[in-house]
Amino acid sequence: MELIEAYGGENCPIDSTLRLIGRKWVIALIKDMYLGKKHFSQFKEYKPELTNTVLSDTLKFMEQEGLVEKITYDKNNTEYHLTDKSRKLNIIIYDLVEYGLDVLGCNNISIDSFPERMKNDSKKLLFDDET
């Protein structure tokens, strides 16, 4: 019974994490930042359905939750950077890569070594402390 009580209610670690990262676009934006994107316009690349309003609201949410740090250099130059809190999601993102490749078969590139190479590249990128 203790286990059920520990994973129920508002302090459930799974539910709390899902409330944070389950919001649409959060994981996709964190992934983009792992890949080096920093600017508003870069986050919209390959996401035609992502509107400026939704992107702005999501980045504000992420900033309020401590997932990103917003750095404004001047009126036309703002960057978003991962925080330690968001970097700790690296294992979840890597597991999503593995799941997508291994279970869902998300491999539309006709290079035989692509799945293994993507896993290795993702592992290096996501587990590198200098991200």
Which descriptors would you attach to this protein?
131 residues; mainly alpha; two-stranded antiparallel sheet; 2 strands; 55% helix; globular
Number of strands: 2
Fraction of residues in helix: 40-55%
Low-confidence stretches: none
Overall mean pLDDT: 83
Secondary-structure content class: mainly alpha
The value of Rg in angstroms is: 17 Å
Shape assignment = globular
Reading the helices and strands in chain order gives: HHHHHEEHHH
Largest sheet: 2 strands, antiparallel
Q: Strands of the largest sheet, in order across it? A: 1-2
* Distance between the amino and carboxyl termini: 41 Å
Multimeric organization: single chain
**What portion of residues belong to β-strands?**
5-15%
- Helix tally equals 8
What's this model, at a glance?
The protein is built from eight helices and two strands, in the order αααααββααα. It is mainly α.
Describe this structure in words.
By secondary structure, the chain is mainly α. About 55% of the residues lie in helices and about 10% in strands. It has eight helices and two strands, in the order αααααββααα. Strands 1-2 form a two-stranded antiparallel ribbon. Helix 7 runs antiparallel to helix 8. The protein is globular and about 50 Å long. The termini are far apart. The mean pLDDT is about 85.
